[in-house]
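Here is one chain, start to finish.
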Amino acid sequence: MTRDKTSTSVGVLDPPTTIAERTAIHFASSMPGLDRAHDWQLAELAEARPFFWLRSQDRPPLTLLVVDPRCVVDGYDPELPDAALSQVGAAAASGCVLLATVTVASASEATVNLRAPLLINPQRMLGTQVILEDPRWPVRHALTASDQEGQGGPSHARPEPQGR
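Its structure:
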């Protein structure tokens, strides 16, 4: 089945992503360990769906590999703090997008950070990294071969954005 949408637990991106087509995503606060990196560009990896590149505009060639967390974890639906929603100018989580950073240790070993997702408001092009307190979401969730091929999680059913 061809995916015509990338679904997140909060919102939906249409490839080529509406975020990547518009402009850079501004993070008012740098992500931990990435000082002075406030403006980022999201780029689709058509040959490697469901993955995206998140490229720093402030500190090239700094680039993060990111993925829609629901592509790798069935039922990923973290409770987002009101403060995080406020940082991206959103009154509610609906309409926002979640992405998770991926760490590739070797050709056969990769993990995704479910504890600290990136929350993006595509209407205002604002983002923040949310540090979750919920122990159900690990910092290093192992990716499987089916996840890396875009076969994991419920995102292939293309659910509609969920309100909170």
